[in-house]
Specification:
Blueprint (H helix, E strand, L loop, with lengths): L5 E4 L2 E4 L4 E2 L2 E5 L36 H10 L4 E7 H5 L8 H16 L3 E7 L15 H6 L6 H4 L5 H4 L24 H16 L4 E2 L2 E2 H20 L5 E5 L31 E2 L3 H8 L4 E9 L4 E10 L14 H4 L3 E3 L4 E3 L7 E2 L2 E2 L2 H18 L6 E4 L20 E3 L6 H6 L6 E3 L6 E3 H18 L13 E2 L8 H11 L9 H17 L2 E7 L46 E5 L1 E9 L4 E8 L5 E4 L9 E6 L1 E6 L4 E6 L5 E7 L4
Parallel strand pairs: 4-5, 4-22, 5-6, 6-9, 9-17, 17-18, 21-22
Antiparallel strand pairs: 1-2, 2-3, 3-23, 7-8, 10-11, 11-12, 13-14, 15-16, 19-20, 23-26, 24-25, 25-30, 26-29, 27-30, 28-29
Helix pairs in contact: 3-8, 7-8, 7-9, 8-11, 13-15
Length: 659
């Protein structure tokens, strides 16, 4: 049976029957960023094979699809943010699309629908590409713009695990490749240059022409061409509901004063300074041109509860030039700076801040037109697709909003993580710290309130969408590292401990997260489910030693048990209101007692559907409906509620007393 189409109405997702719907999903999967089978960052490479790689088999070989989709459905998910990348589609060269991969991806989407899973297509990237420490764009793009990616490591223009990690040594290597440092690449030269060209090349590199097009149009048209190739193959699948614009886009140098180094909150930049190098745009451009620069390095100080400068580091001491012979830095050509015998001389401090005397705005001038291009390209193929839009991840947290010119039928697909937990791999409880303010949070009540405030800020970023009518918020990524506290849970598992004890912190962190999502009636797609995940600290999700997968083969000791391999399941496999003809008023699950309460105001038929997992109620449960009646589907783990009048309906579930 085909799934009903999903649309939007104000701040809600609406199905074809007019029911307000909560999409509770998962990102599939963390290793889709890398080629199959041996493309993960746990394998050394110089990327010389970049034109011949294949992504067929990511997130899993097709013969495993039924196993994984049935597990995800059993855990209550009804939506997938299904990852792909620009490189996966167009790695061989311009317009040379990998048709075998495209067919494979389309078949994954079709199979997902058979298990009741909606899909939105996520063209994923992190820090631009594999060659710059992440994933996303194909390598031939660098050649097209005149950059030699083989020089990035030696020049210090990118921070890449495959060049820094000692594979013979294995394990965590904080001296060579510190935990969670891949994100620092956004500040480094290769990312700064590529993101500026991608979003704003017409303004800041007007003379850079590739195959008859300005560099911005060339890059965006090739990216959009890959979206269209996927779109053409999934256009007839009713469970495919739309396209993400681009995962966590970088902003390049746009809006930055040429010589500004961000070492702390300032009037010029009110954002917190995060650990890592504090590059200016000029630092990045100079290093790429073969100039040695001194760049401040920041580390987080518990004493100051902020990042502080610990040293100035010399970058590119060997004066390695990252531009190919005959190529010229387009920003130098446009008058941002001048290369001299002594180094570089800044010529226009406001070069990336104004164009022809007009101050530029990142969201209005560059993001909105990009969103519009994505929407127009995919909606030519199917006009009822939703657009899942993303800005820089910190925009919503700091009170920003989507540009008003964002296309209609757009979803706020911003991301949220507990930054302290993500970066330290420690869930701080009962005392935690707000990393943005340095304020100490004491106990469950304050920590959960902090989560809700931040998620509320992100939700509010969608206030400008759809002509000011607002939009549904689907938190496109949220989750926790599973290698918390030095991966003690993995050691306990290896030692034979199959109890829930080693996963207590994980369950608690997830409980706080999902309590906040429930309280705000937010949809979400959890990061992530990686079929190839390993407890090995060199591997994790197969990408930069991240390990956020809710499943691991290393913990699957009983393949006949659909839950085997799941990590901290009770933290996220919870009852929730999936859909109702009416307006949800309250959803609350108390993990300690396993009491679940849902209230809604019915409209019309007023029918509602709830997911009630056996995992939480292995001995059964008692259900009462104040204002209606209930029908059960034990196999689907669903409860359907039908109101008996027009008043508020209250559903209460409690576990059957043991014994």
């Amino acid at each position: 049976m085909a799934l009903p189409r999903i649309g939007i109405d104000g701040s809600w997702f609406i199905d074809a029957e007019g029911r307000k719907t909560i999409l509770r999903g998962v990102n599939l999967g963390g290793d889709c960023k890398m080629p199959y089978p041996d493309g993960g960052t746990n394998h050394p490479t110089d990327f010389a094979d970049h034109r011949t790689v294949s992504f067929v088999g990511r997130p899993f070989p097709m013969e495993e699809a039924d196993e994984h989709f049935s597990r995800l459905a059993a855990w209550g998910f009804n939506c997938l943010r299904l990852l792909t990348t620009w490189e996966a589609v167009e790695h061989a060269g311009p317009r040379d699309y990998d048709t075998a991969y495209l067919d494979y991806y389309a078949e994954l989407c079709r199979r997902a629908g058979e298990y009741g899973l909606y899909v939105f297509v996520d063209f994923h990237q992190d820090v631009w590409s594999r060659m710059t420490g992440g994933d996303g764009a194909p390598a031939w793009i660098f050649e097209k713009v005149g950059l030699d990616f083989t020089k990035f490591h030696e020049a210090g223009a990118a921070h890449v695990m495959q060049y820094k990690y000692d594979y013979a040594r294995g394990g965590r290597q904080e001296d060579n490749y510190p935990t969670m440092t891949w994100a620092q690449n956004y500040r480094l030269p290769a990312n700064g240059i590529m993101w500026t060209l991608f979003f704003a090349g017409r303004d800041f590199a007007p003379d850079m022409i590739i195959d008859g097009q300005n560099v911005q149009d060339y890059l965006q048209d090739h990216y959009a061409g890959c979206l269209v190739e996927i779109a053409k193959r999934v256009k007839d699948l009713p469970n495919v509901i739309g396209f993400d614009t681009l995962n966590e886009p970088g902003t390049g140098f746009v809006g930055q004063r040429l010589s500004y180094q961000h070492v702390g909150k300032s009037e010029e930049n009110p954002r917190i300074a995060t650990p890592g190098p504090a590059w200016s745009a000029l630092d990045g451009l100079a290093v790429a041109r073969g100039v040695t620069r001194s760049v401040p390095q920041l580390e987080f100080s518990l004493e100051h509860m902020a990042s502080v400068v610990t040293e100035d580091r010399q970058v590119n001491p060997n004066n390695v030039d990252c531009w190919l012979p005959g190529a010229q830095d387009p920003f130098e050509k446009a008058g941002a700076y001048r290369r001299t015998n002594e180094g570089v001389e800044p010529l226009r401090e406001d070069f990336f801040q104004s164009v022809d005397g007009r101050k530029v705005d990142l969201e209005d001038d560059y993001m909105a037109p990009f969103f519009d291009k994505v929407a127009k390209k995919v909606r030519v193929v199917r006009d009822d697709w939703l657009i899942f839009a993303e800005l820089d991840p910190f925009t919503g947290l700091l009170g920003g909003a989507f540009p008003e010119e964002t296309p209609d039928r757009t979803v706020n697909a911003s991301h949220w993580y507990d930054i302290a937990t993500l970066s330290t791999k420690t869930f701080m409880y009962p005392t935690a710290v707000n990393p943005f303010s340095g304020k100490t949070l004491n106990g469950r009540e304050e920590i959960e309130a902090h989560y809700k405030r931040q998620l509320s800020n992100i939700r509010n970023a969608g206030r400008t969408l759809n002509a000011g009518k607002g939009a549904p918020t689907l938190i496109g990524e949220c989750g926790i590292p599973y290698d918390l506290d030095g991966a003690t849970a993995y050691q306990a598992w290896a030692d034979g401990d199959r109890s829930e004890g080693p996963w207590t912190s994980h369950v608690l962190a997830l409980e706080f997260l999902y309590n906040a999502l429930d309280d705000l009636h937010l949809s979400s797609t959890h990061w992530n489910y990686t079929a190839s995940n390993s407890n090995d600290l060199a591997i994790g999700d197969g990408w930069n030693q991240e390990d956020l997968s809710i499943f691991s083969r290393d913990q699957q000791d009983d393949p006949s048990d659909i839950n085997s391999g799941g990590r901290a399941l009770k933290g996220f496999v919870r009852p929730y209101l999936q859909a109702c003809k009416g307006t949800p008023l309250e959803t609350k699950f108390t993990l300690e007692t396993r009491e679940f309460v849902s209230r809604y105001q019915p409209e019309g038929s007023g029918e509602a559907t709830l997911f009630v997992p056996v995992l939480q109620y292995p001995d059964g449960y008692s259900l009462s409906v104040d204002g209606g009646t209930a029908d059960y589907d034990a196999i689907a783990q669903k409860v359907t509620v039908t109101p008996e009048g027009t008043g508020e309906v209250v559903i209460t579930i409690t576990p059957v007393a043991e014994g």
